[in-house]
TrEMBL record:
Top-level taxonomic group: Bacteria
Domain VOC: 6-130, 151-268
Transmembrane segment boundaries: none
UniProt-recorded name of the protein: Glyoxalase family protein
InterPro entries associated with the record: Extradiol_RC_dioxygenase, Glyas_Bleomycin-R_OHBP_Dase, Glyas_Fos-R_dOase_dom, VOC_core
Biological source species: Desmospora activa DSM 45169
PANTHER family for the chain: RING-CLEAVING DIOXYGENASE MHQE-RELATED
Entries under Pfam families matching the protein: Glyoxalase (PF00903)
Amino acid sequence: MKKTVGIHHITAVAGHPQENLDFYTKVLGMRIIKQTVNFGDPNTYHLYFGDEVGRPGTLMTTFPSPQARKGRIGGGQVGVTSFAVPVGGLDYWKERLQQYDVSIMTGERLGDRLLQFDDPHGLHLEIVERKTEQRSGWTVVGLDGEYAITGIAGAVLYSTAPEKTNTLLEQGMGLIKVAEEKGWVRFQAESPNGQWIDVKREALPVGSMGAGVVHHIALRAADEAEQQEWIDHLHQYGITPTEVRNRLYFQSIYFREEGGILFEIATDGPGFTVDEERKHLGQSLKLPPWLEPERENIESGLLPLQVPKAKGGKG
């Protein structure tokens, strides 16, 4: 059976770019890995947040725009994005979020204690503890590196056809069903980051795209050869993905499954240092070669950003 090793990244629509950047860097303590534009809509930023080098499985990315209308979370979407912290970190994060006046709720799902909250534009997030020896290589002032976010833990899917979504995840994508209770089903992959996907068993009405809503969820392929295998594999399930699209930092294909959720399969490489040294990641606007001739026009249409300065792994 062909299988993905886990989540590569999750991409959401956001509101004001500076508010978006400040929350994920200053509050959540993630590093801005890349400051670029939506290649399909160069008038909109595409910001990448992750660990110190933006490893697959640590990446949260956003399309922020001050003109973005408010979305509605519902069927055919990622309902919640979950971040992992080391065991013992939940109480620390509860106190930290309260210091930033972030409204929080505690919850539980499939045996996990959860700290649930929204980002400034309404995106549903949560923090969960995970046993791991891994620690983030990036911290910011005031954040205890012992409890820093280590990456994406998983995602909660809201489907308009949950059984069909479940079948695709298990049989088509090779994830293993590991738990099922109280209206939830959990599927698991092998990667230590982006390991699990929970599906709500109840079919939900279709949501609408906009600020505070996940645009797509990306799963991992090791390289372009494996990505081609995925294209052939998906055809066996009646799915015709898009052509391969060059995202500069990885190669991508996209498809929408029967429950309405937009999936991407992204290659692990070449990574984010192809156009920027590691120590300067995320510090300036980077454009792909085909958009570079339009830099002046693109920059004039974007709000300037104040980006935290890199300090050798310490924010």
